[in-house]
Every structure is written in structure tokens, then in C-alpha cells.
Amino acid sequence: MSELRKLKVTEMNRLTMEQFKEADKLPLVVVLDEVRSLHNIGAVFRTSDAFLIKSIFLCGITATPPHPEMHKTALGAEYTVDWKYFKETRQAVNELKAADYTVLAVEQCEGSTLLDDLVLDKEKKYAVVLGNEVKGVQQEIVDMCDGCIEIPQFGTKHSLNVSVTAGIILWEFANKLMK
Question: Region 108-131: what's the mean pLDDT?
Fold first, then answer.
């Protein structure tokens, strides 16, 4: 077995904050629909930074930076990833649709597309809507979306934490759109 050595932070070729702001972003906006946990919001910022996501739309009761509890999980990503606040999620969805985004709710719905089967067009712009920790994406918002995507699950709990869901979904979009 070969010897493995953890990389030092200085060896990871991380972008500076300025380089991140100037970098080409994935044509993807994350919409947080009434997400209540500051830790979940911070984790979504951190994951969005990791995958060069264009922006996060924070809607309804979803808190906005700066906030010390959010910073615990965002670790500064709340300063790198662009974000915008909307009082109502439908305003965010309407703005995205007007800008020619394909808007997809991440929700268990009749006719949803399993993440494994999701086909993305590199010429299009996308937005994914992640819902409240208890209620999920509001039905009104699901109705406005172009479709629903669902993460296949095989156990007794057919529910994932919103930050875990964000990690899975954002990786899949990055993997499919960056190749």
C-alpha cells in the first residue's frame, strides 16, 4: 500500500476571495425556500463555494448573512458566494424564469426525475429549490417549477437534511455541467 499524506492548506491551490469572485461560475442558482436552520444555510453557502455556484437566493424566513451561527458552518463562504434575499419564494422563481432559468424543485413528487436520470444541457441555466426542513418545498412553488428532481433513497427514512441534499444535488450538477 502506498503512503498517503494529507495536504497542507498551502498545497491545495485554493482560490483567493478575489479569484473566486472573478472565476467563471456554474450556471446554477440555489433557492432556499423557508429554510430555518442557520447551520443548514451556512452549510449551503460552503457547498456552493466549493462547486462555484453562481448565487443563492434566500427566501422568506431564511436568514441572511452576516450571522455568527451561520458563519460556524459557512466558514467565510457567506462572503464569497453572491446572494439575494426575497420576501417570498415565488418572487425569486419569477425572476429566475424571466432570466431563462430552468427551475427545478428538489422534492418527492409524482413524476419527479430521479437524480440518476437527470440530463442537463450545458447551454442552459438552472436553479434548484430546496425546501424547509419539515415541510419541504411549498406546493405553490412546486407548481411554478419546470420539474422536480428526487434523490433515490432506499431505507426507512425518505428524507435527508437540507444541507446534505444540497451537497448531493450540487455535486451532481457540477459533475454533469463541468465535464
Answer: 97
